[in-house]
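Protocol step 4 of 5: obtain the predicted structure for the target chain.
Materials: sequence only (see below). No template structures provided, no constraints applied. The aim of this step is simply to have a reference model before the mutagenesis design in step 5. Sequence pasted as it appears in the construct record:
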Amino acid sequence: MKEIVTYVEMTARDQLNPAASVPGLVLESLSRDSPLVVDLRARIGAPYGWKSARRTDEEWGRWFAQCPTRIFWLLSIGGEPVGMASYDLHSGEEVEIEAFGLLPDFVGKGLGGWALTLAVQRAWKLSPAVSRVWLHTSTLDHPRALPSYHRRGFRTFKTEERERN
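Step 4 output (structure tokens):
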């Protein structure tokens, strides 16, 4: 299946255009040992064909071993998980939002803009030297993902067409 992958970035904190806040929606640190990491990534990615939706336990073990510094944050309302963000720090100056998303039951409920705002704010705070925050999305992801990233202030810096297995 063909997809177009779009890479977007912010190169200054003041480029973030925050969405309207959603009372009670918070972003909290999530231990990489938490079973929620695997559960949430699988459930968030299932509608979009993410690899995380079909990994075996053995594949998860290899995935965690390949990215020992990846960090995870839980999006929740009133203690109920609604989504997550995961981050990779690159050379101390760049933060990649490696994954971001809401659980299917919370998509279309008006949470995404504020959830993304919280995730981007956190990315800028992960290291005092951060000068760039970036992520990528695909035409196979939610159709409002890329427009939402642009509304929050990200700009496209690269696109590529590829085959997804």
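Step 4 remarks: The radius of gyration is 15 Å. Helices lie at 35-45, 57-66, 112-125, 145-151.
Proceed to step 5.
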